[in-house]
Design a protein that fits this description.
Elements (H helix, E strand, L loop, with lengths): L8 H17 L9 H13 L14 H10 L1 H18 L3 E7 L4 E6 L1 H5 L14 H4 L3 H8 L3 E3 L12 E9 L5 E10 L5 H23 L4 E6 L11 E5 L5 E4 L1 H7 L3 H4 L5 H4 L3 H10 L2 E6 L2 E9 L5 H5 L14 H5 L7
Helix pairs in contact: 4-8
InterPro entries: GAF (IPR003018), GAF-like_dom_sf (IPR029016)
Pfam family, one: GAF
Protein name: GAF domain-containing protein
Length: 342
């Protein structure tokens, strides 16, 4: 997971100078901001976002909000345990925010009441925080950059967000696309960056695992790693395999562990990478929820997340036409021309 470094006091002063130049000349000065912040400010400027803009954007209606939540129920259900945990650890000092792939907020936990009184009442359900709508912010910028983002005090594009710092980590679906973003927002500087980013990274790993598992409820789902201690960590790989032995999905970590691109893995037979076909793998997983496999890439330790409780014999039994009883032979036909049986 690639993370950017927090700013030192001198760069923070330079950020203030960059903001003054933006106000006076309508331009982003070159060579002042961090590269990713510079690029984001320029995108925000090109989108026409007013740097002094307030929160005039309309929110979702009740009906559309219900539809929004219904359409993102898989992500919400997968994320809530992690959000509740983060709220216990970080909720007293900030906000834990979940957004979808459009940067629309799906859940907010923490000191929402305090932040509403701080000029950001639009951190609420149904509000869109894309870069095009709100300028540089961790939710929207993470979606553009496709990686974890740190936004320190003063680095947000909007003036009213200058005293806030944010850390966001993207959430990926089993196919590798970004499904949403998990964000931690607080007043004041980033502070202990590694603590918050590591905590968010662990939470996102759990969310992705739950989404992965739920998405393949009728198939084999297993977590694996070359080191047993790394199971149930953000570095474990996830695979979904059909009962016929076809690889259906692979997490990013799985691709790294198997040293293969997702496009190469998906659709292939699992024996090419795991050394067992689908039925052998299912039998092994049903027998041992924890174990190891010998593969072309070496030994992998695994944990079964899902294995259909069905007999392999039942799964492989070919469909056969029902047996029919042949009609009783006609006695006269059997007798033929033999007068003895006529």
């Amino acid at each position: 997971m690639t993370l950017t470094k927090t700013l030192q006091p001198k760069p923070l002063r330079e950020v203030r100078l960059a903001r003054e130049k933006l106000h006076l000349e309508g331009l982003v000065p070159s060579g002042v901001l961090r590269a990713e912040i510079d690029a984001s400010w320029r995108r925000s400027l090109n989108h026409g976002v007013p740097v002094s803009g307030q929160h005039e954007l309309s929110l979702q209606t009740t009906a559309s909000l219900d539809l929004l939540l219904a359409n993102n129920q898989l992500l919400i259900d997968a994320a809530m345990p992690a959000i509740d945990y983060l709220n216990q650890r970080q909720g007293k000092d900030g906000l834990i925010i979940l957004a979808n792939a459009d940067a629309t907020i799906l859940a907010v936990e923490g000191r929402a009441d305090r932040l509403k009184g701080s000029g950001v009442p639009d951190i609420t359900l149904g509000a869109c925080w894309s870069e095009a709508a709100r300028g540089t912010n961790a939710l929207g910028t993470t979606l553009v950059e496709g990686r974890p983002m740190l936004i320190d005090c003063g680095e947000h594009y909007l003036d009213r967000l200058s005293r806030f710092s944010c850390t966001s980590v993207p959430i990926h679906c089993p196919q590798g696309d970004i499904l949403g973003v998990l964000d931690l927002t607080r007043e004041g500087p980033l502070g202990r960056v590694h603590d918050s980013t590591a905590l968010l990274g662990m939470a996102v790993s759990q969310i992705e695992s739950r989404v992965f598992n739920t998405s393949y409820s009728e198939h084999i789902v297993l977590a694996f790693h070359s080191r047993r201690q790394y199971l149930e960590s953000p570095w474990q790989g996830l695979l979904a395999v059909s009962l016929s032995g076809q690889i259906l999905a692979a997490s990013g970590q799985a691709c790294q562990l198997l040293r293969a691109e997702r496009s190469v893995l998906v659709g292939q037979r699992c024996e090419a990478f795991l050394g067992l076909d689908g039925l052998q793998l299912l039998a092994r997983l049903q027998q041992d929820a924890l174990g190891s496999l010998q593969t072309a890439q070496g030994e992998f330790f695994y944990k079964t997340l899902r294995a259909p409780q069905r007999s392999p014999n039942v799964l492989t039994a070919p469909r056969t036409a029902p047996k029919t009883t042949p009609p009783a032979p006609d006695l006269e036909a059997l007798a033929g021309s033999n007068a003895r049986y006529a």
